[in-house]
Amino acid sequence: MSKTIQNNLRLGVNIDHVATVRNARGGQYPDPLRAALLAQNAGADGITAHLREDRRHITDTDIEALMTGLNVPLNFEMAATDEMQKIALRHVPHAVCIVPEKREERTTEGGLEVAREENKIGDFIAPLREAGCRVSIFIAADRRQIESAARIGAPVIELHTGAYCDAHAEARFAERDAELERLREMSAFATSLGLEVHAGHGLTFDCVQPIAAFPEVMELNIGHFLIGESIFIGLEGAIKQMRELMDQARG
Ligand code: PXP
Fold it and tell me: Could you list the residue range(s) of the whole structural domain that residue 153 is in?
């Protein structure tokens, strides 16, 4: 909990897909903790890991190893289930990010429907907050969802950037620009309600800068692209390059 945070736009490196590669064969390597320590040394301000219900990548043992081995904060991504709440309360990571989770999805497809389940999610996060975890809710850049997140007392929201990144990658530029504008407006709106704003999902070297330039955004969580890029330029190089692009955008 006394772990230090330095940058005004933090980079959280998501190491889930190091575990995906390990689990493709079973066994011990590549080791997610080793990748996390390397990320920490390369300038990551935090490490993010999603313990999914089906344990398809990160495992309970990985979470234990990250909790004891890291010097930077762990952001524990989890679905709003009793099982995950118990695990989070056992470890009390620096941050927990509540995400929607469907067994059949390949990745987290949308944001959490907090507006429709306000009371339920409010009750769910209360013990996590009381335990001292900084609770974040992963939501779409949507006014109703943001208002609900503020009403239930979540200190942080993470805005889903997937639609913006997909539109960019597929050269649907009008759609991309509309998504970007929505993210910009909703970042400012959330900040006006007193929420801290994070963002993530699908970010790459090519599309990170417009999001990093939003002054309200305090943290980006980036995983799949960085782990993929590390095949070509190494994890340290990929993180350093991402950090540089973020700093440039922040001006
Ligand atoms: N933020 C949240 C809440 C996520 O669920 C994910 C994916 O696990 C990310 C950020 C990182 O997304 P990506 O791996 O596409 O960079």
Answer: 10-250
* Tens digit of pLDDT at every position of the chain (251 positions): 444 444 589 999 999 999 999 999 999 999 999 999 999 999 999 999 999 999 999 999 999 999 999 999 999 999 999 999 999 999 999 999 999 987 677 777 789 999 999 999 999 999 999 999 999 999 999 999 999 999 999 999 999 999 999 999 999 999 999 999 999 999 999 999 999 999 999 999 999 999 999 999 999 999 999 999 999 999 999 999 999 999 999 98
In a domain, 1, yes or no: no
Atom of ligand 1 nearest to the CA of 202: 15
**Residue bearing the CA closest to ligand 1, atom 4:** 201
Tell me whether residue 50 is one of the annotated catalytic residues: yes
Predicted TM-score (pTM) of the model is 0.95
Domain membership of residue 121 (yes or no) is yes
Q: How many whole angstroms from 200 Cα to the centroid of ligand 1?
A: 6
In a domain, residue 2? The reply is no
Q: What is the CATH number of the domain that holds 16?
A: 3.20.20.70
Domains of the chain: total: 1
DSSP class of residue 73 equals P
**Residue identifier of the C-alpha nearest atom 12 of ligand 1:** 201
List of residues 6+ apart from 15 with CB closer than 8 A: 32, 35, 36, 39, 47, 48, 49, 58, 223, 227
219 lines ligand 1 (CB under 6 A): no
